[in-house]
Write the structure tokens for this entry.
Amino acid sequence: MRGDRRLFRGLDFSLAAGQLLRVEGANGAGKTSLLRLLAGLALPAAGEVRWAGQPIRRQREAYAQALLYLGHLGGLKEELTAAENLAIEADLAGTSGVDGARIADALAGWGLARQARLPLRVLSAGQRRRAALARLQLTPARLWILDEPFNALDVDAVAQLGRLIETHLAGGGLAVVTSHMDLPIAPAQLQSLRLS
Amino acid sequence: MVTARHRADAVTGLVFFVVVASLFPLGVGSEPRLLREIGPGVVWVAALLASLLSLPRLFVADHADGTLEQLLLRPHPLPLLALAKVAGHWLTTGLPLVLVSPLLGLQYGLDGPAIMVLLLSLLVGTPVLSLLGAVGAALALGLRGSGVLTALIVLPLNAPLLIFGSGVVQQQMAGMPVQGLFSLLGALLVAGLVTVPFALGQAMRIACE
């Protein structure tokens, strides 16, 4: 429910390792709300979300470690630099082995080598989005929930993100993605959910 | 765990504190006895208002740029994260007030022991201001006019603290024992530390729903 509106009901699906769920629907259909439900940021009015057979509200911390959620809002502090944001992020996520070199590599991979030490505030929307996407390379999370991750990206970056998701899936990861565009993913791994 | 803030407006609260406390002698005249009497109360009210001023900063920016919801997705216990946020707030807002308070005490003509008690009362009390203030800020998050709403929630909540805090200094100045009131202040702090993180965690979760 969002406000007094019932957004969707009767949703029943499951996602296995290596699969991608693509959520489609018009604006306002509830795609973001669904993703937030899956991430555990919102509670469903009825029904439940399960991870590895257990409801997520019973395993908040384990689920948090397995999950990476990238929402509309960047989730990064704009006073800090891209490198600092990623370092704090890795720290808070309890991820070990993420040092300055790996962060620098990840950022360089997204074309942000020179911008890594600038406060995010001075970067463009596309650059900030790419800095946020660098998290994907630094996280051990198995489930990626990405809300409109292709927004504000140019053609090259879109292809790069597509490859990154494919690699993730090939390694046994799962992903839930909303997007207006076609995704460069092999159909066999793709599940589609259309909200209306 | 506390996010570093590269901001200069931690100083704003401190400046506000000093300015407000310095305005009173201008307004009420500089008769030493009067100033000494109102000193503790004025410093405490100034601390309360300065703390209130800095509360929106605690959550509003994080809510707006999505870092608050990311915080909720951390594998750490929610109350612990909430406590860390409050601790960060106190270190940047409350602690400077405590350190500056002796100067204000001097301005109001308080003697050494009274200044000591003032400082200690603020040392115990400003964390409570941060704790209760955080609850108010989190509850008002995302609502229109949230600054005023936060004030409306926080000011009454802090009334006992204000009474005990300035009261303990006045007791000392009157030559009466202060252990009782200090114990009450300490009790407020402990009660706050034990209950607020859980409430705050829930409030943060509700704000991001």
In short: The first helix of chain A runs from residue 31 to 39. Residues 37 and 162 of chain A are 24 Å apart (CA to CA).
